Amino acid sequence: MVSAVIVAGGKGERMGYDIPKQYINIKGREILAITLDAFESCESIDEIILVVPESYIDFCLKNIVEKYCFKKVKKVVKGGLSRQESVYNGLLNCNPHCEVVVIHDGVRPFIQENIIQKSIEGAKKFGACAVGVYVKDTIKVVDDEKFIVSTLKRDELISIQTPQTFKYDLILKSHEYAKQNNITATDDCALSEGYGCKVKIIEGDYFNIKITTREDIIIARAIYDSLLKNFKEEQNENWSRL
């Protein structure tokens, strides 16, 4: 059994909106709904555990899950004070028969089904798998006074995205180990590494952006426009062949 834990626990205070960023509407559909579309339609995903702020559980159920009839969303559970706590709570609410879990940011709406599938296959083979893309910019290390100390090799640098996918027992134990040893990390790969497990990287997609700032909304609208246009063109081609 494969579960997806979708983390949408942020409040999006940096955005300056009245609602959390995952509920911002882009071209007629909320960011979180666009994210869930990919997991709902992915045949390998058996269930979705949605993690949101406690005060937004009812809102999310009514305005996302019920509104769009997401059948695979089995639970909407409360998040924690940090992303790490939110993921852990999501893991605890997965089906007892879960073998592989896909962990994904709710504000990465343009994840493609084929990448989700590849991450699942990677986790089954290697135990831990993360999506990433090579950085495009030259990365500098600076000191406290903002003077350059060194230049990192660009061909050795990967920008990590989600999904990050694991054998369920492995990532649960990684979280529990971190909890017991007061270890905090910004992503689940780091927890898996800290537990002693290597993480395999698979190629991601530069469109798979995380919406964090107002500038990202502008980019997201452009990406969504492009994806909708491509979808309509493909549909028209299919109809023309009939």
Automatic annotation (TrEMBL):
Residues flagged as site, Transition state stabilizer: 14, 21
InterPro entries reported in the protein's UniProt record: IspD (IPR001228), IspD/TarI (IPR034683), IspD/TarI_cytidylyltransf_bact (IPR050088), ISPD_synthase_CS (IPR018294), Nucleotide-diphossugar_trans (IPR029044)
GO terms assigned for molecular function: 2-C-methyl-D-erythritol 4-phosphate cytidylyltransferase activity
Keyword Ligase: no
Annotated catalysed reactions: 2-C-methyl-D-erythritol 4-phosphate + CTP + H(+) = 4-CDP-2-C-methyl-D-erythritol + diphosphate
Pfam family, one: IspD
PANTHER family: 2-C-METHYL-D-ERYTHRITOL 4-PHOSPHATE CYTIDYLYLTRANSFERASE, CHLOROPLASTIC
Family membership noted in the UniProt record: Belongs to the IspD/TarI cytidylyltransferase family. IspD subfamily.
Protein name listed in UniProt: 2-C-methyl-D-erythritol 4-phosphate cytidylyltransferase
Organism from which the protein derives: Caloramator quimbayensis
